Amino acid sequence: MKPGSPTAPSAPLRSRDSAPRPEGPAPAVELSGVVRKFGTVTAVDGLDLTMDPGTVLALLGPNGAGKTTTVEMCEGFAGPDAGTVRVLGLDPVRDAARLKPRIGVMLQGGGAYPGARAGEMLHLVASYSAHPLDPRWLVSVLGLENSLRTPYRRLSGGQQQRLALACAIVGRPELVFLDEPTAGLDAQARNVVWELVDALRRDGVSILLTTHLMDEAEQLADRVVIVDHGRAVASGSPTELTTGAGRRRITFTAPPRLDVAAIGACLPGDARVAEPAPGRYTVSGEATPRVVAALTGWCVDNDVLLAGLSTAKRSLEDVFLELTGRELRA
Ligand SMILES: Nc1ncnc2c1ncn2[C@@H]1O[C@H](COP(=O)(O)OP(=O)(O)OP(=O)(O)O)[C@@H](O)[C@H]1O
């Protein structure tokens, strides 16, 4: 949360339950070999994942990657077909009664009573908690003052999203699940949500969020797990994933179907060129002036005009493309 921000949370967010437990801190979330099938569709396919307490972990992946299914198993809505799921050291299905007071859940689509007014809903959810946050403070931070008397079904999509977030955190959970928390929000509302997530993290709350927005994952997460077809294809901090231990890579755009083997043969060292998507190329190995000169030299010799060339830090989108050969938004 930026200093001086008019929406800066000032109320204590820390869970009353967040003091170290005698048995030592269990991982906030631990999945081991988790499989979940729907008929012939394998939504989650052998997923391993460990999330440290007090951190923000983003599950990043395209539509249908298995993010929501994974989160729903953590929330105890369904058990896995194989493997184990542990949340705060507990089995979310078997130990649901012990776990529910310690977690907050923001569902895609809200999971609300359609006729209830926004203010009634928030106060109802707050009443389930022994030590809730002040609902008036949350309403103010999330800009919901003018929506309190509006029935849930009449709220705009963005207002429903913000109310769902307020309901997820009003009980001071130790761990919050946020499924696509900024889907459908405008830039201003998205920033408010990002700032609130940041404030929760600073107060020691663990947050598992799903997103298909690279900038959201980069901005919020301590650790990103890139998911595709129900599997983790890469994980690490945003910096680790985008810089690959500090190295910069060359990417370039040019007409599709260039002879990548021929280009690679002109480059110094063992650099290889790949075309993971039509017209988008990557060069393996570290970007150096000699590699750039050799690449542009090949273009001169072959009358190829580059549309773009970058030696900047890779984005998570680039990382996903390199790993899967597909665009993250596809
Ligand atoms: N209840 C269900 N019945 C049948 N198939 C399902 C069910 N829930 C999920 N699936 C399928 O499982 C796969 C993973 O879906 P899931 O919703 O977990 O992906 P996701 O990564 O959250 O996608 P999105 O970003 O679109 O929400 C998809 O192929 C989806 O169609």
Automatic annotation (TrEMBL):
Q: How does it sit in the membrane?
A: Peripheral membrane protein
What SUPFAM superfamilies is this protein classified in? P-loop containing nucleoside triphosphate hydrolases
User: Subcellular location, in the record's words?
Assistant: Cell membrane
Q: What is its main location?
A: membrane
Q: Where is this region: Disordered?
A: 1-28
Question: Listed GO molecular functions?
Answer: ATP binding
- Give UniProt keywords alphabetically: Antibiotic resistance, ATP-binding, Nucleotide-binding, Transport
- The answer to whether the entry has keyword ATP-binding is yes
Q: Which PROSITE patterns match?
A: ABC_TRANSPORTER_1, ABC_TRANSPORTER_2
Q: Any idea where the ABC transporter domain is?
A: 29-254
> Which is one Pfam family of this protein?
ABC_tran
Q: What is this protein called?
A: ABC transporter ATP-binding protein
Origin species, per record, is Tomitella cavernea
